[in-house]
Amino acid sequence: MRGHRRLRGGPWGRTLAAAGLVGLLLGTAACGGGDDSEGSDPSSAGGGGISEQGEPVEGGEITVGLEAETNSWLPGEYGGANAGTTVAYAIYDPLMKRTEDGEIKPYLAESMEPNEDFTAWTLTLRPDVQFHDGTPLNGEALKTIFDKYLMAPTSNVKNSLADVTSLDVVDDLAVTYTLNKTNAAFPSVLTGAAGWPFSPTAAEEFGEDAGANPVGTGPFTFVSWQRDSNLVVEKNDNYWQEGLPHLDKVTFRPIPDEDTRLASLQSGDIDAMQTLRQGTVSRARDIDGVDNYEYLGNNSGGSIFNTTKAPFDDLRVRQAMAYGMDQPALIDVIGGTGLTPEATQYFSPDSPFYSEEAADAFPTYDVEKAQELYDEYINDPQRSDGQPVGTDISFTYNCPPDPSLNELSQLYQSFWSALGMDVKLNTVEQAAHIQNGLAKDYEVQCWRVGDEADPYITLKNAFTPGPLNFTGYTSPTIDEGLETLRTTADLDERKAAVADISMDISENVPNVFTGYTLTDVAVQEAVKNVDGWEFPDGTKGDGVPGATTMWGFVWLAD
Amino acid sequence: MYVLRRLPSLIATLLAVSILTFLMTSLLPGDPALQILGAENATPEAIAAVRAELSLDDPLPVRYLHWIGDALTGDFGRSYRTNEPVSQAIVERLPVTAEIGLLAIVIALAIAIPVGMLSAYRAGTRTDKVISSTSFGLLAVPNFMVAILLILIFAVWLGVLPATGWVNFTDNPVQNLRSALLPALSLAIAEMAVYTRLLRTDMIATLQQDFVTMARVKGVSNRRILFRHALRPSSFSLLTVAGVQVGAIIGGSVVIETLFAVPGVGRLLLEAVLVRDLLMVQGVALVIAVSYVVVNFTVDILYSYLDPRISHGRSAARV
């Protein structure tokens, strides 16, 4: 499956395929989806390739079209998804980032070392790094950021740092994160907003307006921000990485509508844009003179079953529903045909944690089998919903209002009705939809699962008791696997543990999938090296996960 | 006098609007605290902390009184989501929406007045039929379709106007006008059709009145009759409807500003509603309601100015 969908031509194809490994938090809850435009046939999906890169060129400015505006740039308040992260990478540097092999490695930090049982992590910073306002980046700065902002009562990263009991300064450049329990996956927390150091002096000075005046260590310094219009950054002449950034200026413009964002790229108003919509990706491939930097992430659309409610507490019902749906047909409705393979687990074929066995074990379309399982349940005198023998099950399927999601819901409905189920469709506004998920106040609903965080974080959230376990499903096998993930840093052992968990999910189907999400940074050909970022020691990075770009490495050809 | 007499009902309207917006937004499903934290971080303790910080647990009447009290002094609070002062956000964005809206009305009137007059003058002819059916056609096309078509034609094919984006007037007046043109045109198309139909109907009635016949008999030229004699008495309902249609323009701006990625009040409102940014929604809704009421109030006054008969009649009745 690897590299099945893109990367025609150019030596950059391989790099790009490798870059499709793992990456950034995509946000588990939001239930976006495809697009109402038609999917393209794999053979006819044009573009998709990348032009020759050539040698780096210094100078120039570009304008980038974003999916959405971000509420605030202050970690703790910052609630941006992919559109926010890509801007943040211009202003901030993440302490840790992911390599193309999926390993979490220090980026702004110089080193990150655990103690023997992974209950304390010592992070050492690089010497002579300064924030844009001249404040030195040192242990004191990290401690102030942590105590005063990240752990504030209303901080939205507090939960991801819940294991940390304290952050202590060891010496000028080193701090120790002390955890209340073993966590071998802790460094991955510092790839996100909790690991984007910002100037504590500037934050103090700006007070309540700190979120509108970001001061980081990144390749570009913040110039101005007019909400919903543009955010301008300029080259940081004092950047700690020699020779970076290449560009003089980047303007980010949130253009929420997919059609007009693409039209802006086509008309040359903007030089680059991001998209997470499958229909837009296939159309961007067809534009001449546009390079597409695509990335197949772990995030997948699908439906979740509330396993705490009858009849979905019965495995036969869930299996019947999984066998009774044709995933390729559903993918087609959201425009993903030719872009994404069928999803079978929380990790895409490009992830190091992908398991072939779990993929084979996940139910695929088989109406007879589905009917058999369903009939067995409804004719079972002991059936969990207490209904009379032979009565069809009846439930409501919830999904937010969106043309492509409506179509998707109708297709699910037709598959499940064909088995005899009485499926009612219900449109629920996004905010209420998420709340229903958290409160498990639903029967079956469309949902996104999987993200680019460490498997321990993703799977612990999804399958241990708590509000984030949206399906309510737990199992001893999963607990065992999570224990391994928490206590070992050995990649092979961790892969095996994830494979066991994925197998358990394939066998117990707490949810079904509708393909992974292919994301795309579409740029004018002159914009180069969009996914070619590296660690300071030359290790290749993870490319453009979720259409987020390390702008410091990008240059503009003459 | 007239203004003073209207004042109590104006205040009552605004009060009702403020209570309604406050109630409706507060009763929406979806917890703002959850929106602020994001699902991944929404532990019950974190939600409780945020709700306490925002005083979301106080009884509704208490929250309303706090809010309206501050609002009267111009303080709408800070957005839950962006921490930006609501009044500042509105002050920054209102000019954008106002500029696009005004431009839309000007474009619509500039086209509708001659076309409507022509249609009335040639009532029943082929010209009239073509104009009428075109207006009906334009009325039926939703503004987002118009917007996409305009972008395709003027930005992608011809490359003469920007597809999306906004340039502040203070930064570059020419670019500002270029960025406002397509959004304004998208809003103007439907308005134009409404105005044309309305003016046609009124003008046909005017042209049948005795004073027009009299003018004709006196040998006044057609052009002079149309512009000097018939336009003013035919434009009362046009003016009234133009005032009422400000509501349609504000409504349309929600869609149009999002499509054109323009930082106006409509887009601010839409995003605030989606994320349950209650203080922002309440502040913006109140300001929109006030603008609407003020515009229509102004139209009322203009109306009596345009038609002295009404003004005199009213003052006579009142004295």
Automatic annotation (TrEMBL), chain A:
Location of region: Disordered: 33-57
UniProt keyword annotation of Transport present: yes
GO biological process: peptide transport
InterPro entries with a match to the protein in the record: Peptide/Ni-bd, SBP_5, SBP_5_dom
GO cellular component assignments: ATP-binding cassette (ABC) transporter complex; periplasmic space
Domain Solute-binding protein family per the UniProt entry, residue ranges: 103-463
Entry GO MF terms: peptide transmembrane transporter activity
Top-rank lineage group of the source organism: Bacteria
Pfam families, per database record: SBP_bac_5 (PF00496)
Cross-referenced PROSITE patterns: PROKAR_LIPOPROTEIN
Presence of the UniProt keyword Signal in the record: yes
Annotated SUPFAM superfamilies: Periplasmic binding protein-like II
Keywords, alphabetical: Signal, Transport
Family: Belongs to the bacterial solute-binding protein 5 family.
Name listed for the protein in its UniProt record: Peptide/nickel transport system substrate-binding protein
Origin species: Blastococcus aggregatus
Automatic annotation (TrEMBL), chain B:
Keyword Endoplasmic reticulum: no
GO cellular component, one term: plasma membrane
The keyword ATP-binding is annotated on this UniProt entry: no
Keywords: Cell membrane, Membrane, Transmembrane, Transmembrane helix, Transport
Transmembrane segments: 7-28, 100-124, 136-160, 180-199, 236-260, 280-306
Membrane topology recorded in Swiss-Prot or TrEMBL: Multi-pass membrane protein
Residue ranges occupied by any ABC transmembrane type-1 domain in the UniProt entry: 94-303
Entry's Gene Ontology BP terms: transmembrane transport
Gene3D superfamilies attached to this UniProt entry: MetI-like
Locations listed in the record: Cell membrane
Protein family: Belongs to the binding-protein-dependent transport system permease family.
Protein name: Peptide/nickel transport system permease protein
Species of the source: Blastococcus aggregatus
